[in-house]
């Protein structure tokens, strides 16, 4: 009896896995991608690092519950020409490697909405979030089982995006992305920038959200998402779930919004936004026309990914 109890505990600890379900609710194909920061942990999802997801299709796979510093996102308007492993074969979100993202360097090219995870197999707490720190390219919702909170950015921010940040655009001229102020390089100095929380602005104290251009555009529409690197202080960016709930997670691209689009205006900043509501939905990309990427869209180096840098999360 004691032995079998031990065996049970042993099995639970060593082999606990979660089921992740990735559903493409968009009326067009996206190419989901998975990246794990292997410097933070070696557990990886039991699935390929990239695939084609046609409209309204689902895949599911097992993920070890020690998965740490991982992300799932969607790539838009991709072609994968033979022999070309460049991230630029997708209009945004592309990774080096081709259809399968390179396990070491395939972090994804901004702008891209990220679903980020550090499961608590070893720490006792799952951390997860939807991040707009690298900008936006698709609406995403993370739905845990077991009653833990939904994290999401359910709106198509492309057509709502301030002109300065909008793009890339598909062949019809539709904005399939919205860059963060950092990625767009609006202050011209990404290595010492209050928008990027870099240089002397690299702490929560020296990089308040009030210093981040367009923060309220992203946070206003998507209050449950990360809108800048130190957004933990908002209390609605980084989400947790007790790991012994053994939550499964569904990641949905283009979720059906479960409420009205926010009608928000930013606190008194000099920048005015067009917070008009939109009835248009994303056009179905037909684009084979790969836009050249602009300054600031360089791929982050592995290990310097933008998973929220709270010490608990990494
Ligand atoms: C996973 O996918 C299979 C087949 O696609 C389906 O039968 C099964 O119910 C799914 N499991 C979960 C937990 O979603
Ligand atoms: C790969 O494709 C991209 C996007 O079309 C293009 O810019 C680049 O030149 C290609 N690279 C090679 C090596 O063919
Ligand atoms: C993020 O965490 C890494 C590793 O702990 C650390 O070296 C780096 O300085 C942190 N970056 C910021 C912006 O706090």
TrEMBL record:
<feature type="disulfide bond">
    <location>
        <begin position="95"/>
        <end position="101"/>
    </location>
</feature>
<feature type="disulfide bond">
    <location>
        <begin position="78"/>
        <end position="90"/>
    </location>
</feature>
<feature type="disulfide bond">
    <location>
        <begin position="161"/>
        <end position="178"/>
    </location>
</feature>
<keyword id="KW-1015">Disulfide bond</keyword>
<feature type="disulfide bond">
    <location>
        <begin position="26"/>
        <end position="254"/>
    </location>
</feature>
<protein>
    <submittedName>
        <fullName>Osmotin thaumatin-like protein</fullName>
    </submittedName>
</protein>
<feature type="disulfide bond">
    <location>
        <begin position="197"/>
        <end position="207"/>
    </location>
</feature>
<feature type="disulfide bond">
    <location>
        <begin position="148"/>
        <end position="241"/>
    </location>
</feature>
<dbReference type="InterPro" id="IPR001938">
    <property type="entry name" value="Thaumatin"/>
</dbReference>
<dbReference type="Pfam" id="PF00314">
    <property type="entry name" value="Thaumatin"/>
</dbReference>
<feature type="signal peptide">
    <location>
        <begin position="1"/>
        <end position="16"/>
    </location>
</feature>
<feature type="region of interest" description="Disordered">
    <location>
        <begin position="284"/>
        <end position="314"/>
    </location>
</feature>
<feature type="disulfide bond">
    <location>
        <begin position="153"/>
        <end position="222"/>
    </location>
</feature>
<feature type="disulfide bond">
    <location>
        <begin position="182"/>
        <end position="196"/>
    </location>
</feature>
<feature type="compositionally biased region" description="Polar residues">
    <location>
        <begin position="289"/>
        <end position="314"/>
    </location>
</feature>
<keyword id="KW-0732">Signal</keyword>
<dbReference type="InterPro" id="IPR037176">
    <property type="entry name" value="Osmotin/thaumatin-like_sf"/>
</dbReference>
């Amino acid at each position: 009896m004691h032995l079998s109890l031990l065996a049970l505990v042993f099995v639970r600890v060593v082999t606990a896995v979660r089921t992740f379900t990735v559903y493409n609710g968009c009326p067009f194909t996206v190419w989901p991608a998975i990246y794990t920061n292997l410097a933070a942990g070696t557990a990886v999802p039991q699935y390929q690092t990239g695939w084609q997801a046609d409209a309204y299709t689902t895949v599911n796979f097992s993920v070890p519950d020690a998965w740490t510093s991982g992300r799932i996102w969607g790539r838009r308007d991709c072609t994968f020409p033979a022999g070309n492993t460049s991230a630029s074969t997708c209009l945004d979100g592309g990774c080096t490697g081709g259809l399968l993202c390179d396990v070491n360097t395939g972090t994804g090219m901004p702008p891209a909405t990220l679903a980020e995870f550090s499961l608590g197999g070893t720490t006792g707490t799952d951390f997860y979030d939807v991040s707009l720190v690298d900008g936006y390219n698709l609406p995403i919702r993370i739905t845990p089982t077991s009653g833990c909170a939904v994290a999401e950015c359910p709106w198509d921010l492309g057509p709502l995006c301030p002109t300065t940040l909008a793009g890339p655009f598909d062949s019809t001229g539709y904005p399939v992305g919205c860059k963060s102020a950092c990625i767009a390089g609006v202050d011209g100095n990404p290595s010492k920038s209050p928008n990027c929380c870099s240089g002397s602005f690299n702490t929560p104290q020296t990089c308040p959200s009030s210093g981040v251009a367009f923060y309220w555009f992203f946070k206003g529409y998507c209050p449950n998402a990360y809108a800048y690197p130190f957004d933990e202080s908002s209390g609605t960016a980084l989400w947790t779930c007790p790991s012994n709930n053994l939550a499964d997670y569904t990641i949905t691209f283009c979720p059906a919004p479960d409420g009205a689009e926010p009608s928000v205006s930013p606190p008194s900043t000099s920048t005015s936004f067009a917070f008009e509501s939109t009835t248009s939905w994303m056009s179905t990309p037909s684009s084979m026309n790969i836009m050249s990427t602009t300054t600031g869209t360089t791929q982050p180096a592995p290990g310097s990914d933008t998973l929220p840098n709270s010490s608990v999360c990494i």
